[in-house]
Design a protein that fits this description.
The chain has one domain (6-173). It has five helices and no strands. It has helices at 6-41, 49-70, 79-83, 86-120, 134-159. The N and C termini lie far apart (44 Å).
């Protein structure tokens, strides 16, 4: 079976799709900030621009998490890991990925639960936009679910011996 099998393409597409949504949220954030600046300069008010800018910033951050993980761009403390070789190193990798997967799954569960509760109770923003809170919370929940999938994916790849750890040489270029 090739490395780019159907499930692998589907997962990579999920991570890339979430990253594209994060990028779209960044463009939306820029639009909200520009609209807020222009409206102040031209002496008219567009209610909710600050709140929507905040929602879009949070959405961009959460939706980009899985893609960042898969590209090896999350911050990792590798001092202990780099000192280990062979089985102890692999055991530490498996333990770290299992712990991260468990935490990401919990975060995803509670994020999804928050969206559900906000929808059930008709929670709305206290700002002047009065946005139903489940709408911006949905991006957070989606981002955490995709991150949990990415961590479980990394764990499964590590257990199967197929994980390719992306090594960043960025720390070598600190000045």
């Amino acid at each position: 079976m090739s490395d780019r099998s159907g499930p692998r393409r589907l997962l990579d597409g999920l991570y890339d799709g979430a990253a594209w949504l994060a990028a779209a949220c960044m463009v939306g954030l820029l639009a909200m900030v520009l609209l807020s600046i222009v409206s102040r300069e031209l002496h008219f008010m567009v209610p909710g621009t600050d709140a929507y800018a905040g929602y879009l910033m949070a959405a961009a951050g959460f939706l980009a998490l899985a893609h960042t993980l898969k590209k090896g761009e999350h911050i990792r403390v590798t001092l202990l890991l780099s000192a280990l070789k062979g089985r102890p190193r692999r055991a530490l990798e498996v333990w770290a990925l299992a712990a991260a997967s468990a935490l990401a799954l919990l975060f995803a569960w509670y994020s999804a639960r928050l969206v559900w509760q906000s929808w059930q109770f008709d929670d709305v923003s206290t700002a002047n936009d009065a946005t139903p809170l489940w709408i911006p919370q949905l991006a957070m929940a989606a981002g955490t679910v995709v991150l949990a999938i990415a961590f479980v994916d990394e764990l499964v790849l590590e257990l199967r011996g197929r994980r390719v750890a992306v090594a960043s040489d960025e720390m070598l270029h600190n000045e």
